[in-house]
Structures are given as structure tokens and as C-alpha cells.
């Protein structure tokens, strides 16, 4: 009987310990999506499309991240003045929609070539968070380094998409390619 009670106590302690580790990880994941949304909103101010800043409105397309879309919608709803921000969730079949920035989440590696081709033709800033997307046409790739969200900028991919990224954005990047 004492052995069973001991086993139950250990099981309960393990469950409590696991829950105390999982909850902060879930909160941290949600925080990362908030940070990505803030960064993406800021990217609009630090890029030029055809030599101009998008001052009146900007459209951000999101493939594969409803949480990110939610956080961007929150940002858009708080904007009372300035640029109108429209957020649309897309699939890889919706690449005929006009967007200024396209974020591609995890799991779309097989579609990168088609997505990058679309972005080059339509002058769209491609942003992603899956490792390697920067080598496959993205202008910006989010990375986590030392438990912090950072990003890499590929100037050549920006130019190929008809974009010019500001020196301020390049200074904030942890790496330039």
C-alpha cells in the first residue's frame, strides 16, 4: 500500500512539473507570434515598393498561421490614424490576391518556388519562419537566437521582388545576405 501511495505521489509530482514547463512554453509561443506581428507591421515602414513607402494602406497576406493573423488583426484594429492595414488569410491556391507582404508559416516548403515566383512578379515582400526560406526567395526569415526572436534580411531577394529595404531595417537584422 505504501509503495502504491509513493508511486501515485511521484506521478502527481511529475504531472505538476510537466504542466509548469508546458504552460510557460505555450505562453512564450504566443508571445513570439505577437512579436512577429509587430515586426511585420514595422517592415512596412522600412521598405520601399517602386521607390515609395506604402503610406495610405497595406495588405498583409498570411499562409499557415492563424495566430499571427489574429495578432495582426489586433494591431490593425488599434490603428486609428495613418495607414489602413488589411490582413487576409490565404492558402497557396490564393496567390492571385494582391498583397504587399506575404508571410508563410511552417510546412509549406514544397510550395516555396511557386510562392517566391509570385512574390517576384507581384512585387511582394516574402517573409517566413521556416529555416531555409531565405535561400529560396524570401526577403526576411524569422529565427530564434538565444531565446529571442530575430530576423535575417536577403537584399538580393528584396531587389528581385522590386523592393528596397532601408538601412535601418538592415541594421536591425542579425544577418544580411
- For this structure, the quaternary state is single chain
Distance between the termini: 65 Å
In DSSP terms (H or I, runs of 4 or more residues), the helix count works out at 5
Beta-strand fraction estimate: 15-25%
Radius of gyration of CA atoms, rounded to a whole number = 20 Å
Morphology? globular
Structural class: alpha/beta
Explain briefly what this protein structure is.
It is built from five helices and nine strands, in the order αββαββαβββαβαβ. The chain is an alpha/beta fold and 177 residues long.
Notes on the protein architecture:
Helix content is 44%, strand content 24%. It is built from five helices and nine strands. The strands form two sheets. A seven-stranded mixed β-sheet has the order 3-2-4-5-6-7-9, with helices on both faces. Strands 1-8 form a two-stranded antiparallel sheet. β6 (140-145) and β7 form a beta hairpin. The longest helix is centred in the N-terminal third of the chain and has 42 residues, at 2-43. The chain starts with a helix and ends with a strand. The relative contact order is 0.13.
Secondary structure layout:
Elements: H1 2-43, E1 47-49, E2 57-63, H2 66-78, E3 84-90, E4 101-104, H3 112-122, E5 125-128, E6 140-145, E7 148-153, H4 155-160, E8 163-165, H5 167-172, E9 175-176
Parallel strand pairs: 2-3, 2-4, 4-5, 5-6, 7-9
Antiparallel strand pairs: 1-8, 6-7
Helix pairs in contact: 1-2
Amino acid at each position: 500500500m505504501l509503495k502504491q501511495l509513493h508511486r501515485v505521489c511521484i506521478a502527481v509530482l511529475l504531472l505538476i512539473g510537466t504542466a509548469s514547463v508546458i504552460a510557460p512554453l505555450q505562453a512564450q509561443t504566443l508571445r513570439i507570434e505577437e512579436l512577429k506581428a509587430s515586426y511585420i507591421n514595422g517592415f512596412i515602414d522600412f521598405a520601399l515598393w517602386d521607390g515609395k513607402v506604402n503610406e495610405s494602406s497595406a495588405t498583409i497576406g498570411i499562409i499557415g498561421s492563424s495566430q499571427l493573423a489574429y495578432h495582426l488583426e489586433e494591431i490593425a484594429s488599434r490603428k486609428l490614424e495613418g495607414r489602413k492595414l488589411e490582413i487576409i488569410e490565404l492558402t497557396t491556391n490564393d496567390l492571385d490576391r494582391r498583397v504587399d507582404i506575404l508571410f508563410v508559416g511552417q510546412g509549406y516548403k514544397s510550395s516555396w518556388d511557386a510562392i517566391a515566383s509570385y512574390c517576384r512578379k507581384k512585387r511582394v515582400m516574402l517573409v517566413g519562419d521556416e529555416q531555409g526560406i531565405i535561400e529560396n526567395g524570401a526577403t526576411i526569415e524569422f529565427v530564434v537566437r538565444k531565446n529571442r526572436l530575430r530576423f535575417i534580411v536577403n537584399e538580393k531577394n528584396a531587389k528581385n521582388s522590386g523592393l528596397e529595404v532601408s538601412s535601418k531595417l538592415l541594421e536591425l537584422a542579425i544577418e544580411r545576405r
